[in-house]
Specification:
Chain lengths: 301, 79
């Protein structure tokens, strides 16, 4: 007998295969219509059978979050999230905390990008510190898989003038480093651990290059993030140089860079750390061709 | 209303409709479960919530081609 298959699947990327088989996550969208308590009942029951892979459970949580939590799919969420009433905030807080409590323990059951999205809206919703700590811990476990765009979400704190929220990235980085030190005692030569921390170093330096373009970026936050990366995580300092260079161009276009550096001792210190390390030819050219910052270039050398 | 009054009465029919049409279908189970929120105590006491949840879980855990659809023609065959 020919059975007609009826389920909702609106997400992109599947249309090509539609006629051959049913996607493994066929059930996730329809189940997302349910309210959070019923959804939780179903997901926990499925989880406890261990029949489905943890990534599939993670996908169901992701679909549910996209359906109910405003701002989780959009980069510039401030418009919609600010207008939330206390009541809807309370409701969303409950949804977020429930979702986090259901993430399977297996590493990679949800993407690190999703964890960062949850983290960014959790601050705005004022979730419990338990949930926040758990999200930071989960994100730090998968930190090396992150891309720069995973880390770029707008700051939601009203006291914070920065466009990007660097504090959360800093928190995840610190947790990652703690974990890394605990996992790799004396194993500096171990290529797995070295690769892992180098990936994170590269990630942070690339991230710094993007946030450096934010003209409200406070020098203390910028330097603190740059300094938190231990020297073992950097093979060379080209990316850090570029980030500092961008920062100076954006924030102090009319000042002498040397002058600026002397008055911001923390950035000076950061440059000094970098100066002592090797700088490759590429970075030298980048700084040299940046006409306004020739003094900066002189200083670096 | 039940069979003690007359054979083939309303409750029995309703129950077999619920079991064969609602619980067998995927979207019907979801829609029914969602509606139980409007009468939570009744639904809980009558076991509707539990039955819907069990049916949904069973379908999710069943390899896809074995789940019955919620095609309206099923309803016609019942009538």
């Amino acid at each position: 007998m020919q059975v007609k298959w009826s389920y909702t699947y609106t997400r992109p990327g599947y249309t090509k295969k539609q006629h051959h088989s049913v996607p493994k996550d066929w059930w996730t969208e329809d189940v997302s219509d349910l309210d959070i308590d019923l959804f939780r009942c179903i997901v926990m029951a499925i989880r406890s059978t261990y029949v489905l892979p943890p990534q599939l459970i993670g996908e169901a949580l992701h679909v549910y979050a996209c359906r109910w939590l405003p701002g989780i799919t959009k980069l510039k969420s401030s418009g919609s999230s600010v207008s939330q009433t206390e009541e809807s905030k309370e409701k969303n807080r409950k949804i977020l905390e429930t979702i986090v409590s259901m993430i399977p323990a297996d590493r990679g059951s949800v993407s690190v990008g999703f964890l960062f999205r949850l983290l960014s809206i959790s601050i705005h919703l004022g979730v419990s510190s338990v949930t926040k700590t758990e999200l930071i811990r989960r994100a730090s476990l998968q930190f090396e898989e992150a891309t720069v765009s995973d880390l770029l979400y707008p700051s939601t704190s009203s006291s914070d003038q920065n466009y990007y929220d660097t504090e959360l990235v800093q928190a995840v980085l610190e947790t990652f480093l703690k974990l890394w030190k605990r996992m790799s005692p004396g194993a500096v030569d171990n290529s797995y651990f070295l690769r892992s921390i180098r990936n994170v170093g590269k990630l942070i330096d690339s991230y710094l290059q993007v946030v450096a373009r934010d003209d409200n970026m406070q020098v203390s936050k910028f330097v603190s993030l740059a300094e938190t990366v231990p020297s073992i995580a950097r093979e060379d300092h080209d990316d850090l140089y570029r980030a500092i260079n961008i920062y100076l161009k954006v924030n102090y276009p009319y000042h002498s860079c040397t002058h600026f550096l002397i008055f911001h001792s923390s950035l000076l210190q950061c440059c000094t750390i970098a100066r002592e390390k090797s700088m490759t030819l590429t970075a030298k050219i980048v700084l040299f061709t940046n006409g306004k910052n020739i003094k900066c270039y002189d200083y670096f050398l | 209303m039940n069979d003690s009054i007359e054979k083939g009465n309303f409750v029995g029919k309703l129950e077999s409709f619920f079991n064969s049409c609602i619980l067998e279908g995927w979207k019907d189970s979801i829609a029914t479960l969602q509606t139980t929120a409007t009468l939570p105590e009744w639904s809980e006491n009558l076991g509707i919530v539990r039955k819907c949840i069990d049916s949904i879980i069973e379908k999710i855990l069943t390899p896809p081609p074995q789940v019955k659809s919620s095609d309206p023609s099923n309803l016609l065959s019942f009538v």
